[in-house]
Design goal:
Elements (H helix, E strand, L loop, with lengths): L11 E5 L7 H13 L3 E4 L15 H13 L3 E6 L15 H9 L3 E4 L4 H9 L4 E3 L11 H11 L6 E2 L5 E5 L1 E11 H7 L14 E8 L3 H12 L7 E10 L7 H6 L2 H12 L4 E4 L14 H6 L7 E3 L2 E6 L4 E5 L7 H8 L1
Parallel strand pairs: 1-2, 1-3, 3-4, 4-5, 8-9, 9-10, 10-11
Antiparallel strand pairs: 5-12, 6-14, 7-11, 8-13, 13-14
Helix pairs in contact: 7-9
C-alpha cells in the first residue's frame, strides 16, 4: 500500500464538499479545532454552494474543487466537509491521470458516509486513506476521537482500537488482513466497478462496515451480496460499527422477530466461521436522521474511532476481550521509503 507522509505543523488541509451542502455556521467550530492542530485551511470554492436542498454545487463545481486540491502541491490532506448522496457524480475525477498523480504524490483523504465512495477508490488503487469524521461533524465527537485522528495524521503512535472501546464479540477467533472500512451502502455501490476495494488488491482483508436508515430486509440483502462477492474469500474477519435507525417497513411482522445484529451474525456464521465483532464507537451518530432532544443527544455516544484503510491489522475476538491491532505504521516512514527505493 502507498502511504501518505505524516502531516507537520503549517501543512494545508483542503476542505471539499463532494456530496451534500453544508452551512458555514456549522463548520466554524470544527475548523478552529483543525487550526488548533497547527494546520492551515484552504476551502474549496464551492463548499458552501447549494443546488436546491441537495448537493454542494453542481457536479462540475464539486469536481473542480476536488481537482484543485489534488493538483495543489501545498494541500496535504483532502478532507470532506460532509457526506450525503451525491459523491457518485465526482468519481469521474479519479481517472488514470489523477490516480497516477496521487500514487506519485499521495495525499490523505478523510471522511465517511457517502465519502466512502472516494475512500474505496483509494483502497482499490492501493493508497491508504482514513475513514473518520467529516469536517462538519468533527466538533461533535469527543476529545478522544479528535485526538486519535490527529495522532494518526501526524504520524504519532496509534496502536489500534483497544479493549477499552465499545466492543461486543459474536464469533470468536483471530484474523489478519488489510483494513477495508466503509459505509455499507457505498461499499455495495462500488462492487463491479474499477473502484471495488474487494476486487482489486490481493491478500486477506478485515472488513469494517456501518449503516443507517435502512430496512432490515435491505440489510439482509446487502450482507448476502457481500458474502456472495466473487472475492469474498479475501474477508478474514468482520467488524460492524453502529447500525442507526435500522427498522422494517416492508415486512413488519418479520421485522419484529429479528435484530440487525442477529441478522448479520446468523448469515456470517452460515457463510463461514470467521471472527465477527460489533464496535459501537464507529460510524454514523446515533442522533443522525432522528429528532431527539438536546439533553438526549448529550447522553449519546460521541466517540468516532478513525480507521486507516489499507493498514495490515490483527482482529482478536474472544469471550473476555476484543481488539484491533495495527501491525504497521499508518503513515509513510523513512524505512519504508528506503525499502520502496531499493
Amino acid at each position: 500500500m502507498i502511504k501518505p507522509k505524516a502531516l507537520k505543523q503549517g501543512d494545508t488541509v483542503g476542505v471539499v464538499a463532494p456530496s451534500d451542502a453544508v452551512e458555514k455556521a456549522g463548520m466554524e467550530e470544527s475548523l478552529e479545532i483543525i487550526k488548533g492542530w497547527g494546520l492551515k485551511i484552504r476551502m474549496g470554492k464551492h463548499v458552501y454552494s447549494k443546488v436546491g436542498d441537495f448537493a454542494a454545487g453542481t457536479p462540475e463545481e464539486r469536481q473542480e474543487d476536488l481537482l484543485e486540491m489534488i493538483n495543489d502541491p501545498d494541500v496535504r490532506i483532502v478532507w470532506a466537509a460532509s457526506g450525503g448522496y451525491a459523491a457518485t457524480e465526482v468519481l469521474p475525477v479519479f481517472n488514470r491521470e489523477t490516480m497516477a498523480r496521487l500514487k506519485d504524490r499521495p495525499k490523505w483523504f478523510v471522511g465517511y458516509s457517502d465519502v466512502c465512495l472516494i475512500l474505496n477508490v483509494m483502497t482499490s488503487f492501493k493508497i491508504v486513506s482514513i475513514t473518520g469524521p467529516s469536517v462538519w461533524g468533527l466538533a461533535e465527537w469527543d476529545k478522544d476521537s479528535q485526538e486519535m485522528l490527529r495522532k494518526m495524521l501526524f504520524g504519532e503512535t496509534v496502536a489500534g482500537v483497544g479493549v477499552e472501546y465499545g466492543w461486543k464479540g459474536e464469533i470468536d477467533g483471530t484474523a489478519e488482513g488489510r483494513l477495508v472500512a466503509s459505509n455499507l451502502e457505498t461499499l455495495i455501490l462500488s462492487f463491479g466497478t474499477r473502484f471495488d476495494p474487494l476486487m482489486y488488491g490481493s491478500g486477506p482483508v478485515i472488513l469494517v462496515i456501518e449503516e443507517l436508515d435502512i430496512d432490515k430486509s435491505t440489510l439482509q440483502r446487502q450482507i448476502d451480496v457481500i458474502l456472495g462477492h466473487k472475492r469474498a474469500s479475501r474477508i478474514s474477519g468482520i467488524i460492524v460499527g453502529r447500525l442507526v435507525n435500522i427498522r422494517e417497513f416492508s415486512y413488519p411482522e418479520w421485522g419484529k422477530d429479528v435484530t440487525a445484529e442477529g441478522l448479520i451474525t446468523k448469515r456470517v456464521k452460515k457463510w463461514g466461521k470467521i471472527p465477527l465483532a460489533f464496535l459501537a464507537d464507529f460510524g454514523h451518530a446515533e442522533w443522525d436522521y432522528a429528532e431527539i432532544p438536546e439533553e438526549e443527544k448529550a447522553k449519546a455516544n460521541h466517540k468516532f474511532v478513525s480507521l486507516p484503510n489499507g493498514i495490515n491489522s490483527r482482529l482478536t475476538v474472544g469471550d473476555k476481550e476484543c481488539k484491533l491491532e495495527y501491525l504497521e505504521s499508518v503513515c509513510e516512514v523513512e524505512n519504508e521509503q528506503r525499502m520502496a527505493a531499493s
